[in-house]
Amino acid sequence: MRPAFALGLALALAALLAALVSLVWTPYDVAALAIADRLKPPSAAHWLGTDHFGRDIGSMLMAGARTSIAVALVAVGIGMGLGVPLGLVASARHGSLLDEVVMRGNDLVFAFPSLVIAILITAVFGPSAVNAILAIGIFNIPVFARVARGGALSLWTLDFIRAAEVAGKGRTRISVEHILPNILNLLIVQGTIQFSLGILAEAGLSYVGLGAQPPTPSWGRMLAEAQTMVTVAPHVAIFPGLAIVLTVLGLNLLGDGLRDHLDPRLRRAA
């Protein structure tokens, strides 16, 4: 196991473990206010200090990991669940009107970043974690559609696909039985990358008030609330920032390691 991959796996598992543990236990109640303990520096009682409401930052980070991972995971699921079939259909009908419609639709979605999509959605339905999921998920659809289409197009000219066509299999059946299993490595790697970007996007949306709303903890909102207190209590901003950076770094390293492991060309080069 390469050191970079091991580090990425360790960081990703640490974030996941914190999120899972927070479902049943946190050192302190994240909803309890203790104004007398506000802005306390790291100590034996509060290892990462307290925020401006006296809440334990370590507990907030654990609960925030749950929010970030849940939003990113569901958003990636939406993108993969809708984008991959679209990409497979487009590749199976390469050069047709359907292929053109799918790809131009992808271009249209790419013209609107997830933040703009979130603004449009929240203007109608209001800010919430669900709307952040929709915004990030919609932006992920064309990403997976392009990856699936690109990977599939490289396979349609191969001999084993030609043999399946000669055997009488339709293009839909070939896409499911032969194309999809052979592009899973691409989709897994892209899913890992989009997962890290989803965590970053959720933090960004929460930072501007479009993500999870109080009292639900969120790393992005913790940063937004701490920006006016950086000079007074820098730990309030440092620890949420580190949580985001380390988690995204870990997932990126994990994605690179998976790519190296799953791509046979890179394995041979190593």
Indicate the topology.
Elements: H1 3-22, H2 57-92, H3 97-110, H4 114-125, H5 129-153, H6 159-166, H7 171-207, H8 219-226, H9 235-262, H10 264-269
Structure description:
This protein has a single domain (3-269), classed as MetI-like (MetI-like fold). The chain has ten helices and no strands. The protein has 270 residues and is mainly α. Helix 4 packs across helix 5 and helix 7 (171-207) packs antiparallel against helix 9. The chain starts with a helix and ends with a helix. Helices cover 72% and strands 0% of the residues. The model has no long low-confidence stretch (mean pLDDT 92). The longest helix is centred in the last third of the chain and has 37 residues, at 171-207.
Name some characteristics of this structure.
single chain; 270 residues; mainly alpha; MetI-like fold
**Rg value:** 22 Å
Residues in helices, as a percent range: over 70%
Q: How many DSSP-defined strands? A: 0
Corresponding CATH superfamily: MetI-like
- How many domains make up the coordinates? 1
Uncertain regions spanning at least 5 consecutive residues: none
Task: Characterize this entry briefly.
The chain is mainly α. It contains 10 helices and no strands.
